[in-house]
Amino acid sequence: MNQITLEQPGKYSRTETCCRSCGSGALEAFLDLGSTPLADRLLTEKMLTEEELTFPLVVAFCKDCSLVQMLETVSPEILFADAYPYYSSFSPALMEHSRKNALARIKDRDLGSDSLVIELASNDGYLLRNYVEKGIPVLGIDPADGPAAAARKVGVKTICGFFTEEMAADVAEAEGQADVVHGNNVLAHVADTNGFVAGIGKILKPTGVAVIEMPYLLPLIEHIEFDTIYHEHLCYFSLTALDKLFRRHGLYLNRVEELSIHGGSLRIFVERQENVGESVSTMLANESAIGLDTPEFFAEFSERVDGLRSKLLALISDLKAEGHSVAAYGAAAKGATMLNYCGLDTTQIDFVVDRNAHKQGKYMPGAHLPILPPEALVEKQPDYVLMLAWNFADEIIAQQQDYLAAGGRFIVPVPEPRIVE
Ligand code: JHZ
C-alpha cells in the first residue's frame, strides 16, 4: 500500500485556483467541511496508532461555467491505486440497474458480435459482464488492480491504468473506436477533466454514443447529501456545467435521464453530432429558472449542513444518555465524511457493518470504527444503527428484517435524521 506520512504534506495534493473545466479564476467557495482523512483509505489495525494525513474539503462554484468543484486535488495514485476497496458488485440493486442499462443499449444500438463497448472505470466488470454474456466484445479500463483482476475473472478484458487523452489515442488505434462508451461515476473523479472528455471523443465512433452517469448536483443540494463530498469527487455536476464542458470538445449532450441511484443521478447520452432532444433543453431551462447556475443558489447550503449535523448529534447524544447502544451500516466513502464532519467515533458508535469482504477487518478512516460483516447486527443486536449507506436504505432494511424484528432500529441521516423501526 502507498504510504502517506506526515513528513510529506503537500506532496500528495494541490489547491486549485482556476476552474477545472473552463480555467476561469472566478471561483467562489461556499462550503468548508474541514480537513479530513481520505474516505476510502481504510486502516489496518497496525495503522490505527499512526497519525493520519488529512486534506481540506472545500467546495467552490465557478461563476463562469457554473461548475461546482472541490478545491483540493489529491494525487490519483494515492486515491485509486493499491488497496482501493470499492467493488461495485456488492450491491444487488446496482447490479440490476447496470444490467438494465446494458440491455437497453444492446437494443437501442442493435449491438452484436462486430460491435465494441468500452467502459471507463470498469471496476470489477459489474456492467460489461452483461455484454460479454451476449457475445458482444468489450474493453474495460480501470486503474485499481484488485477490481481489474476481479473483472478479468468474469471474462471482461481489462486494461489496468488511468484513462487519459494519450491512452485514448492508443486504444483507438489498437482496438478500434467504440459503438458505446460507458463511464459511470468516474467523470467527477478525474483530475484532468478536459483531457478525459477529449479522450472520450477519440475512442467514440462517429456514430457512437457515450452513456455517462454521475450524481446530480440538484438533489445533493436539495436533500443535503453533503456526505457525498469527499476527495475522490472533484466535480459536482449540473447539466449546465456538463453541456459547456462537452461542447468545448465537439461533443453534444443530446439526451438525459434522471436516475434515483446514489441519491439522484444523471445519465447523459453524448454524441459527436448535435441533435439536442427535449429532455436536455427542458432540464437546462429548469436549471436556469431555479438559479442552479448562480452562486446565490448555494448561499445557505453550509448552514443547512450544519443544521443536519446538530440534529444528528443531538439525537445520538440523547440515545446514548438513555443508555442505548449505536452501531452503523455501510463502510461507504460517504460514511467517512458523515462520521468525520460530525465528529462521531468509537465513543458513540461501537462498529460498522458492510457486505464487502475487502472492507471487513479494517477500520474507518478518522473515526476508527471497526468494520464487521452484516451478521454482527443480529449477533450483537445494537439498539440503533446509523445508516451511512442511506442511498441503499430500502435494500438494506429489506435484508435486515431479523434485526428489526428483534427490536432494532435504523437512523437514516439525510435529508434529515429519522428513525425507521
Ligand atoms: P456506496 C461509491 O461511494 C463509490 P460510496 C464511488 N466513490 C462513487 O463515486 C459513488 O459510489 C457514487 C455496502 N453495502 O456504493 C457496500 C452493504 O454492505 O453507497 C458499500 O461498502 N450491503 C466510486 O462508497 C456501501 O455499503 C448492501 O446491501 O459512498 C455502499 O457504498 C449494500 C447495497 C451496500 O458508496
Automatic annotation (TrEMBL):
The keyword Methyltransferase applies. The keyword Disulfide bond does not apply. GO terms for biological process: methylation. This is Methyltransferase domain-containing protein. It comes from the Bacteria. Gene3D superfamilies: 6.10.250.3100, Methyltransferase, zinc-binding domain (6.20.50.110), NAD(P)-binding Rossmann-like Domain (3.40.50.720), Vaccinia Virus protein VP39 (3.40.50.150). Keywords: Methyltransferase, Transferase. GO terms for molecular function: methyltransferase activity. Residues 261-415 form the C-methyltransferase domain. Residues 19-80 form the Methyltransferase putative zinc binding domain. It holds the Pfam family Methyltransf_14. Coiled coil: none annotated.
